[in-house]
Amino acid sequence: MRYDQATWTREDGDENAGSYEPLLAEKRSTEVTVDESPLPDDLTRESVELPDPSEPELARHYTRLSQMNYGVESGPFPLGSCTMKYNPKFTEDVAALPGAGTHPARSAASTQGTLELRHHLQTYLARIGGMDSVTLQPPAGAAGEFTGILVAKAYHEEHGNSRSEIIVPESAHGTNFASAALAGYDVVSLPSAEDGRVDVDALEAAVSDDTAALMLTNPNTLGLFERDIDEIAEIVHGAGGLLYYDGANLNALLGRVRPGDMGFDVMHYNVHKTFATPHGGGGPGAGPVGVVEEFAPYLPSPQIEERDGEYERVEPEHTIGKVHGFAGNWLVLLKTYAYIARLGDSGLTDTSAKAVLNANYLASQIEYEIPFSPFHHEFVASADRDAADVAKRMLDYGVHPPTTKWPEIVDEALMTEPTEAETKAALDQLARAFNNAADDDDEALETAPERTAAGRIDQADAARNPRLSWQTLDD
Amino acid sequence: MSFDVPDDRGYMESHEWASEDGGTARVGISDFAQDELGDIVFVEFPDEGEEIAHDEQLGVVESIKAVSDLYSPVSGTVTATNDELLDAPELLNDDPYGEGWLVEVDLADESGLDELLSADEYRDQVE
Amino acid sequence: MSDTGRGSPFAPHTDAETAAMLDAIGVESQEELFDIPEDVRFDGEFGIAPRSEREIRHEIQLHLDRDDDLTAFLGRGHYDHYVPSMVDHLADRSEFLSSYTQYQPEIAQGFLQALFEYQSMLVELTGLEIANCSMYDGASALGEAATLALRARSVDGTRVLIPELLADGRRAVLENYLAGTDATIERYPMADGNADREALADALDDDCAMVYAENPTVRGTIEEGLSEIGELADEHGALFCLGTDGVALSLLEKPASVGADVVVGDAALGLGASGGLGLGLFATHEDFLRQVPGRLVGVGEDSDENRAYTLTLQTREQHIRRERATSNICTNQAWVALRAAMHAAWLGADGLVGLAEDCVTNARDLADRLDDVDGVEAPAHDRHHFREFTVRTDRPAAEMREELEDEGFAVHAIDDQLLQFCVTETNAGQIEDLAAAVEVVA
Fold it and tell me: Locate the Aminotransferase class V domain: which residues (chain A) (predicted)?
């Protein structure tokens, strides 16, 4: 098995030069002097210099760049905790329909169709999560976390409780810690028990009158279901705190368990994970937040509500205000709606079945220790050598590697989530990539990758001498 | 794996060292610390003239994938800083007890030196 | 093999494959793989019927058709500029669209280079040394700027001064970003649409962490004393944060030349009217490099000593620094940044400056035309304008806005007797029609 990513050699013909596409600024650049503008000179800048390639050159530039980039359609992408599944094409066309993206300041009366769609999506998400109300405003998962924590904070303040702590399991996503801190909370980190789950005794010891909430993802980052969830909910609720569900791993549970039924009060959904909206190399995503009835009055403003067949923008009674300047990443949400509608009940339930089946099948085919089980949609294998090196070598075998070195509870972790969208044949290819890398000697690993657009990149050099724009490059 | 732990200085459990010489002390991080962090890309320490105190935050050191707080082994006033580290943080990896020193401190009366681990004690900790 | 006999069309397993996989795992059924206590299991229905592609496209089209077909003269932060076809076709290449954050840079050189180019263009436009590769929108970028000001070692103080006239979304989001701090937000007055610099000077003291101003302002006026604001902020050790947009940047005073420490805003490039989906700009001085929120692409070398691109300085970010990260942002708007860079490169400097000049002349033309109408005074502020302006009305503005909808136009009513109109190349052709409609309702 061999993989070669498209590469383009330098014009000097050096065949070992690896990938190379000149920067736009190195192609053609024009400086324009601003001197005949319709404004007085003291209100304008003097000049602007920008790249100025023709459209044919631009088309070739970006096509070449795309050929030096790996996406879900390039091959398997089992990046643990990121749920990189196939993004259906038709949802792109839906989002590009004329009139799909009306200006967010349009009146409710003149956009009843769009508001109805938003309301339908709120309803779908509420049902899927077992929640009572949903806001679509947060523009990403982390923004959803922040929104949820602000809701908890507003709730406690409304009830005269000034609580100062959010409890987060040590193995949680980094955003949980950062979102809680952004909302002004002290973060209490909760160590895992030996079985990789929440240590219920430690949780009992950690909760107090200061506990505003516990943030939890279930299944957790090891893929394990938190079987003590009833007890966990009882402890947190008993202390007067809220239970927050991080929706990052919802793909494992679709149609089988709902966060609301497990006792969660607030949750966010990661639409680019669970609902297949394309990640776009970093975003845009969307992070809708669901709450049970008691917390609905605190949601961001406006909420879309239906009254007698009319859809209105309503300000919730104790709203936290706004978390996005406009109405969130609407076109991404529209893709979410289309995807959920395509799947329906049976497709959603089949999604979690196949996601869990694929993870378990792949695990059965690789020669690595997997210390914690039974896992669901993802597993964490131990590389037993430098996991980052194993990942680099896997690039040479034509796959995107797993998430590496996290969670730290597993030594040299390879956190692997194949998703439901891979065929058995693709999983077999992935397994070969894992196993070939395991069989390769240290030198092959340390010098990998060799078949990619760039060789191993010196991260230390890039960080020690930050060059963050073409203006900083000499040659 | 064994780490270099020179006998001529004192150590913190948090892996900083101090070596005294007539009322002033140099401060740095240990060989073990630089190895744990990996390639160090950035270091932040107090300016000249700032007061620092034993076991309180001295600065921050960053590698590509980790960030660590530094704690001061001694109390006193910073009299010199190793500004070469700003351009060449790799000195912390290459020579943690020599060219990779962080700051020099004019020691206060209660310098904190007595509280430091000896080289033997620190060796026991990291081995 | 699904419970209802019809599974996900995107889970490509044949029954035989599923059986073989279960066999390899050593279990009898898919259900056996779920380690979930009975008492929390969901055995109900969502009540969501699966539909075909064709049905869904038809259904959504029917919904969208229920929206009134209005010509929008709306702005206030979200702008509709024409985006060339090239942008859609190239940005939609699945190698870009279906890729992830560039944690494995060796197979992500293309996207990294495109983001590096985006950062570089923003560096040129702002004159500041550092630009990140996106925030959610202008409002969250403003929130991030304020938390940066509070963190920066060179800045004391906790007061954040913002203009009295500011988009509600930006103010409300800023309030939430500062909810976890001891900062206070205070508004300074405006004089005829622009910052009242005398009042601002009175309001400033050494307890200020940041002064925020916009150019153009939310009402489209062009600020005339930005350097003075920059100097005032500097005198009191506060950061000067300037809000603007990607098109205005090419024509109006260069932020670095008026003393801006941070530039934020909505890009206004790469996407047209998109329901609020956009791109938050964020640029700052290199002094604050370690305090920058979000992702940064840098240049390094690969093992063959060739130039290569990589995400860098990641220790600022949440996945490493957790509760002490500079921001909680993870997923951002990278694909929109890719589109904005494509759009800007397609325009080139000449095209971008020309587009910005049109924003001035189109607004002027529409204002001139409306000023001829009895019962309205346009523009309400005696200022230069960019893209949009306000109009004083004799009749209640809210009523006129509603009646203009009946005439086929969407505009802002922002006060009892103030309407606001925004004009770009996408609606400039309907200036006459709009003016005729205003004549009807004025």
Answer: 150-280
ipTM exceeding cut-off 0.95 for this assembly: yes
Question: Tell me: the pLDDT tens digits for C253-284?
Answer: 999 999 999 999 999 999 988 998 999 999 99
If one counts every other C-beta atom within 10 angstroms of the C-beta of residue C117, the result is: 26
Helix (H, G, I), strand (E, B) or coil at A202: helix
Spatial separation of the C-alpha atoms in residues A325 and A269, rounded to whole Å: 20
Of A337, A15, A44, A440, residue with least CA distance to C216: A44
Which of C292, C137, B119 minimizes the C-alpha distance to A466? C292
- Residues 404-443 in A contacting B (C-alpha not used; CB under 8 Å): 405
Q: What angle do CA C278, C280, C282 make, to 5 degrees?
A: 160
Tens of pLDDT, residue by residue over C399-425, are 999 999 999 999 999 999 999 999 999
H or E stretch at A31: strand A29-33
- Work out how many domains chain A is built from and give that number: 1
Determine, yes or no, domain membership for C25: no
Residue with tokens 């263009």: C121
- C166: contact with A, CB 8 A cutoff: no
CB C346 within 8 A of CB C86: yes
CA A385 to CA B113: how far, in whole Å? Answer: 40
Strand intervals (E) in A247-385: 266-268, 289-291, 303-307, 310-314, 379-382
Residue of A nearest to B87 (CA): A464
Q: Point out the domain boundary residue: C341, C360, C393.
A: C341
Instruction: Go through the domains of chain B in sequence order and give each one's CATH number.
Output: 10-126 (2.40.50.100)
Within an 8 Å CB–CB cutoff, is residue A356 touching chain C? yes
Coil, helix or strand at residue C69: coil
Specify whether C366 is located in the same domain as C243: no
Residues on chain B touching C321 (C-beta within 8 angstroms): 67
